[in-house]
Every structure is written in C-alpha cells, then in structure tokens.
Amino acid sequence: MSAHVDTHDHDDDHGHHHKETFVTKYIFSQDHKMIAKQYLITGVIIMGIIGILMSLLIRMQIAWPEEPNVVFEALLGKWAPDGVMDADIYLALVTIHGTLMVFFVLTAGLSGTFSNLLIPLQIGARDMASGFLNMISYWLFFVSCVIMISSFFVEFGPAAAGWTIYPPLSALPMSQPGSGMGMTLWLVSMAIFIASSLLGSLNYIVTVINLRTKGMSMTRLPLTIWAFFITAVIGVISFPVLLSAALMLIMDRSFGTSFFLSDIFIQGEVLHYQGGSPVLFEHLFWFLGHPEVYIVLLPALGITSEIISTNSRKPIFGYRAMVASILAIAFLSTIVWGHHMFISGMNPFLGSVFTFTTLLIAIPSAVKAFNYITTLWKGNLQLNPAMLFSIGLVSTFITGGLTGIILGDSALDINVHDTYFVVAHFHLVMGISALYGVFAGIYHWFPKMYGRMMNKNLGYIHFWVTAICAYGVFFPMHFIGMAGLPRRYYTNSNFPLFDDTADANVVITIFALIGGLVQLVFLYNFIRSIFYGQKTVQNPWRSNTLEWTAPVEHFHGNWHGEIPHVYRWAYDYSKPGHDEDFVPQNVPLKEGEEELQH
Amino acid sequence: MTALLTIIIVLFIAVAIWQMVKIFDLAEARLDNNQVANDKDNRINGYLMIWFLVFIYVITIVSFWKWGDLPLVSNSASEHGPQLDNLMIISMIIIFFVQTVTQFLLHWFAYKYKGEKGRKALFYADNDKLEFIWTIIPVVVLAGLIIYGLFTWTNIMNLDAEDDPLVVELYAQQFNWKARYGGDDNVLGKANVRLIDIDRANILGVDESDPNAEDDVITTELHLPVGRQVLFKMRSQDVLHSAYMPHFRAQMNCVPGMITQFAFTPTVTTEEMRANPDIIDKVANINRIRVEKSEKLVAKGEEALDRYEFDYLLLCNKICGKSHYNMQMKIIVETQEEYDAWMSEQKKFKESLVQ
After folding, report:
1. What is the DSSP letter of A264?
2. Which residues of chain B have pLDDT under 70?
3. For position B28, what pLDDT does the model report?
4. Is B30 on the interface with A (CB under 8 A)?
5. pLDDT by residue (tens digit) across A474-513?
6. Which of A70, A383, A458 sits opposite B37 (nearest CB)?
7. What structural domains does chain B harbor?
8. Which residues contact B161 (CB under 8 A, 6 or more apart)?
C-alpha cells in the first residue's frame, strides 16, 4: 500500500506544475471532479429534463387521449398534426423515455457523477487509476447522447419498440416506422454507451482495488464506495452481454443473419429468416436488464447509507450486514433475469427456478431497509434536503420493493405481467428510489462539487412536493394495473372494459404534471447555486469521510501535501469519549480507544 | 386560448418561485452557514414526516375506496383462477401489513428523533441478534410464499395428457387475432407461414396436404365450451404478441418461429358472468361513465358511444406496433350445445379456400 502512496505524492508535485488550458481543464479534462460535473450536467440534468418531459407527454396522452393538445402541437410538430399525438410517436416516446431514464440518467448519470466524484476522494486517491480512460469514457457517453437524441430528427422518428427492443419488432423496418433509421441510431448509440460504461466501470474497479490510501482497508470503506465498486463489477459482467445482443441484432437487421428471427410473414411476403429465436434475445437482454436494475439502485442505496448515517449523527447500523447484502444482491441479480420471461414461452420449469431465486432477493433487501430504519432510531436527525430524499428513498424502496413479491411469483405474474402494475412497481423501486438517490447526492455533495451550498428551503419544497406526487402517481397505478390494463397502449378508449380506469389516469397525470413542474424549482436552485449560492465551509455536514478533509477549492490532486491516512471506519458518529459528534477517518485512535472491528 | 392560459400559468409559477427565493434570501441574510438544517428546520420537517405518513395511509385508503373494485382478485372465470386469486390476496395482505408497519417506523423515527442542538445520538453500530431476527423472518415468510407460488404455477402450467383438452390455435398478426380449431378430429393441421397464400385465402399458412387440416375451422371470434379444458397453441406470423385473457387469469406470448402453449378450463359462461352482481355493478358504472362522455361528444357534434355489454376479451399485451392498443378478440364461453351449434355453422378450412 505504501508504494502507491509514494508514487502519488510524486504525481502531486507533477500535477501542480502542470499548466492547464481552458480545453484541458473544462472540456477534455482528466480530473475526476470535472468529469463528475460533466456527467452531472449531461447525464442527470440535460438527459433528465428530456426524459421527464417525455414522461409528461406520455401521461397527458393517456389521460386525455382524444383531445387535441397545444403542448403536443408545440413540441412534437409533424408528429402531432392538429395537436393529436400520432400512435407511432407515442410508442417512440415510451421507448426513448425508458432508454434515457434507465441508461443515460440513472446508469451513466448516477454512477458517472458520484463514482467519479467520490471514489478518489473517499478512498484518499489523487485521481482515478486512469484519468485518460475516464475522459474517453465521458466523451463516448456524450457522443452516445447526441446520437440517441438525434434519432428524433430522422424522417421516421426514433426507435419505438419499447426500451427492451424485442425483435422481430425492432429488427424489421416494415413492422413499424421507428424500426428503420431510428432503431439503427438506437443500437449505435447503445453500443457506444456500453463502451463508455465499461471503461468507466473498469476504472472504478481498478481504482478501488489499487489506490486506497494507507489504512483504508476494505472493511473501512464507506458504504458508498462499496456500492459503487460492486455496481461497477455487475456492469462489467453484464453489459458486454447486451453489447453482444445489440451486435447480433445489427447483424440480423443489416446482414441477413437469423439469430433472433424465424418464420416471418409480414406485409404480404415471407422473409428468408430461419431458425433463430426471439426468446434468445430476451435471455440476452435481461441478462443485462435485470442486473441493470441494481446498477441503478445500488449506488443510490450507497449514497443513502452515507447520508442517513451522517445526518442521523449515528453509525450506520449493521455495517457488515450492509456490505453482505450488497454482495448478496449483486450475486443474486445475475441469476434472476428469467422473471421477466415467465410467459415468454420458455420452459415452465425455468419459471420455477427463477421464482425461487427472485424471491430470495427480498431477504437482503429487507435487511437493508430494517438497517436504515434502525439507524434512524435514537439518532439526532439533521433533516437537510439530502436527508429527506434519503428517507424518501427508503420509503419508496419499501413500497415498490414489496410489490416485487407479487411480480417475482411466476403464478401471479401471469395476470399482472406487462400491465400498469409492473409500471408502478419498477418506477417506485428503481425509478423514484434511484432519482431520490441522485437528488440526495446532489444536495449533499453540491458543496464538494461547486464550493457553494444549495438553498435549503427550495430543497424542502422540492422534496415534499416531489414525494407527494411520486406516491400520487404510482400508488393508484397499482390498482388500474391489477384491473388488467396493459401498458404501452396509445389509448384505452377501444376497450370499454377499461373505461372505469379513466378517472384514475387523470388523477395520475395531474400528480405527474405537478411533480414534473416542481423539478423546475430544483433546476432553478441548482443553476442559481452554482453561481450565487452561499460559499461553503470545508465540512458543512460535519461528516467523517475523507472528501471533506480536502480543501474546498478544486485542483488536480485533491489534497495539498500528503494524502490523508486512515485510522478508523467512516461511521464514528457520536462515539462516546469524543467531544464532537463526529470523528473523521483521518483522526488517529486516542490512547485506549477501541476501533470497532468489522 | 388554452396556450395563452398555459403560458400565463407557467409565468405566474416562475414569478412565484422567484419571489419566494427573494423572501428566503432576505430572511436568511443575517444567519451564518444558513443552508444547513437548524433546529427549526428539523422541527418543521419532523412534523411534516408525520403528515407524510398520514398522507401515505390516506392515499392507500382513498385508492381502495375509489378503485378498490378494479383489481381482478375475484370472479375469475377459469378453474385455476380462484387458486391464483387466493395467492394474490394472501400476498397482498402480507404486503400491506409490512408496508403499514415499516412506513410507520420509518416516518415515526424521523419525527421522534428530529435533531436538537446539544443532544447526542446513541452510538449503536451492531446487534447480531436483531439482524438475525429480521433476516430469518423474511426467510420464513418468503419460503411459505415461494412454496405456495410454485405449487400454483406447476398446477397451472403442467398439462395432463389424460384431460383430452379442446385444442385451439391462437394466431397473432399485426394487428388482429385469429383462432383455429382442430375440427371433428380435434387435431390441428400442420402450418407454417411459408405456406401462406393470400390469393387462395390461406391466411394462416395451413398445410393443405395434411389430412388433419381439412376440417380445421378458422374464426375471428373465440368460442369456448364451458367446463372443458382448452389447450391453446399460440403462433405469431410477424412480431411478438401476447395473448392476455385477464378474466381467465391467462397469458402467454406468441413468438414467431415457435409454438407456445397455455391451457385452462373456463368455468363461467358469458351469460352467467353478465348476470353476476359484481359485473352488473361494474357494467352499470362503466355505462354511466360512457353516457357522461357521450353527452360531451354529442355537444361537440360527434357520435355518442355505444352501450357497453360485458364480454370476455383477448388482448394483445406485448408491444407490437402502431395499433397495438386495438388488437383484441372477443371470447364467448357457452354451453356445449351452443358451442356445437356455433361450430356447425363455421366453414371448414378446405371449403374456405379459393379454388
């Protein structure tokens, strides 16, 4: 370990004398803190705005399907003649909303921002293992964003086969307009995205393993780092499988292979495909698709662990159990993908196996939820906006997670599969929960990123309205889902059977619109605080982790002089025998003080 | 007009936010490090936590009160339906119990232990016994659910060869359904999309040289005799579709290039279901909604909506393209006599071909 420290001290001198130009500092930066901010602005803010806007258009269409809408006319142009949304573009919005939120905002945005910012700072490293790869990773991500968005400007619109892009719908341009150029752009964008994600993940893994400062043993790592580390491992295991699926799909689309296609008659002609299986694609897709849920969720849970402990002024309860549950979730996440495919036509026996493994995930999840609640118990809770979002995360994680018990059960899945029940479930448990994680992280580490504080009162308004709207949107949605209402229907008016779900859909849309609008408060607060926020002190939340031992101002190398050494775990809050209610990790043990052994 | 109103509303909101920030700024100008929660913030947000807990409970109760009759957890129309509904209800009860208790603890603690200057939190990092308890409780509960679930699943999915089910092919294409019956011999003729011949009206690609195919019957409505097990063989000619029959608690994807299957026994005829008090209420409610909607439509000079009458439906439940939202087929469950009468009126495959 000491060898690393030495080399890094050396790097530091080097870094200080290095003259940085505008381009190397702000654009092609290799500094992890700048890259984190780039990911935040591109991934979370810009892609987030586009993704949320799309969801609002979708909601308006569902609530008021027949009525012309000026918003549609203004935003969708030729795809909403006279303000009536076209059915193809509805599916395109659903598809791109899903893709943007799952991959661009909650994978690249979330991990890209917080893994980049926190891994070097919290383990006591000068930078990532490879700053250059890190820079490449961001710019690949940027390119994939541009390509994905550009698909809105091609003649027949973007991909519209759902974010899961099941072939043959996604493979055959004659099956829907979006499966032409739009789908090509989707696949190219995702291939580049995966390359970016892999470069990022490899960097995180290598950095955590190799560049921890002296004394930072794995058992002293903050839970944020554990979560980011394991997330990166899952990403490296599962993303290549999606890449291979995407490549095979490209081959099927453009080079006449039959990996996923067989026996197809469409628009009056028989196609040549023979012997492939769409179910194979589903297997490959969900081998990434399910771990992806945890790639989205684990970093949010890591952030929450850190914020709940800091703001409770208490150690996180059951550190070992928390680490063990992250590991258990990571392991199980790779062997449960079949629960998306109970009724896909695969052998029912596989359904039994996947039911078993799926419901097992509830155990580590329950342990995490109980440990969060116990951490609050007898704490001295500082209800900062970040803390509110973390508590909100635990709340939606529980509500959304519980319905997973129904969906993971193959027998019950028969009747709620692909209904709004599923939509409600995954939006709460991974969408809203992970977004809360992002918000919590932004409020908490904003001072570290920009040297200024965000306005807390706007933060409170943001949280409470968002929290109410999130439940207002997704709670009633379970009911219309259990009524059998299928998702991805452009309108339900062809089914009088579902007429009694219409009022619920209007309620949901109103909550969604309010919830969407209140994000403007956050946006305003965010942008304003970058320039005019109150200047921060070095450690505003009185936190233990190493990032707060670094100076407020940013420079390549993070710490002047020697990097801090670590003598204790990250959660010595309110430890008896200390005057302050926090003891940073770089404070040596007092004489006779015992370290908690993990 | 609406556009103008929307713009004005958005402007008002923007101004309101701007004004609010000004007020906050002025109010806080005198404080130091004022963007970290102080005792007052903790108190206010602590109380709001309790109100939020109340909100969660209220929205639960309101949802049940307003939409509680929507979920399909009773009045199933298939033999395996009640078993599945039972499992659903048991799971729901467990979920609501856990939800109520954990949300209470979470928000109550957030209120009870809201921060105060000078108070010190309890240094409490581990308790193996406690953690063991809340690991083992979910294990036991889930073990029960898993075992019950697996029995139900096996029961639904496993076909008993002795049952002599009625064999029906469900054929999916963008964007409609066809049903094909095996005819008198109850055996479906071989078929492949390569044999489709639109000119001769062989739209399902049935093999004309297969003797079993001659008496096959192709229909656009699905008729099922009550009380007899039906084995559905699903095919799709173009993209993935999913045959979803919510009232029968049945669903299976239709996959091009392979035949998938699902079997169930319908237990309630369409007529009986229409006479079910719950369904009568539901239909009356839907018709009330439709009348209200019709009034608005007529006022706009459009046609009024038809009256709704209950029917079982087969819906497409896998995204399949533009008209996915309108890919449906009526299912009629009837007595064996009615079914036989209907079947005798249908054209056999051989007769239906254009020579």
Report:
1. -
2. 1-3, 24-33, 161
3. 59
4. no
5. 999 999 999 999 999 999 999 999 999 999 999 999 999 9
6. A383
7. 166-273+307-352 (2.60.40.420)
8. none
Provide the CA A415 distance to its chain's centre, in angstroms: 28
The whole-angstrom distance between residue A426's C-alpha and the CA centroid of its chain comes to 12
- How many Å lie between the alpha carbon of B337 and the closest alpha carbon of chain A? 28
* pTM, two decimal places: 0.93
ipTM of model = 0.92
Q: Per-residue pLDDT for A4 more than 70?
A: no
At A598, list the tokens: 């993990």
Are A112 and A44 in contact, with CB atoms under 8 Å apart? no
The string of DSSP codes covering B291-308 is HHHHHHHHHTT-PPPPPP
Query: Residue A49 class from Cβ within 10 Å (0-12 exposed, 13-18 middle, 19+ buried)?
Result: middle
What is the residue extent of each domain of chain A? Answer: 2-255+279-549
Distant-in-sequence, close-in-space partners of A112: CB < 8 Å, separation ≥ 6: A35, A36, A39, A40, A43, A137, A138, A141, A200
Contacts of B88 in chain A (CB under 8 A): 406, 412, 415
Say if CB B332 and CB B312 are below 8 A apart: yes
Contact A494 B59 (CB under 8 A): no
Which fold is adopted by the domain A2-255+279-549?
Cytochrome C Oxidase; Chain A (1.20.210)
Conformation bin of residue B186: beta by default, left when phi > 0, alpha when psi is -120 to 50: left
> For residues A510 and A575, what is the distance between their CA atoms, to the nearest angstrom?
47
Whole-angstrom distance, CA of residue B128 vs CA of residue A463: 34
Overall average pLDDT of the A331-358 stretch: 93
Q: What CA–CA distance (Å, rounded) separates A351 from B156?
A: 12
Chain B hits for A263, Cβ within 8 Å: 192-194, 237, 256-257
Nearest to A415 among B72, B256, B318 (CB): B72
pLDDT at A245 over 90: yes
CB atoms within 10 A of CB A591: 5
* Partners of B263 in beta bridges: B231
pLDDT at B174: 92
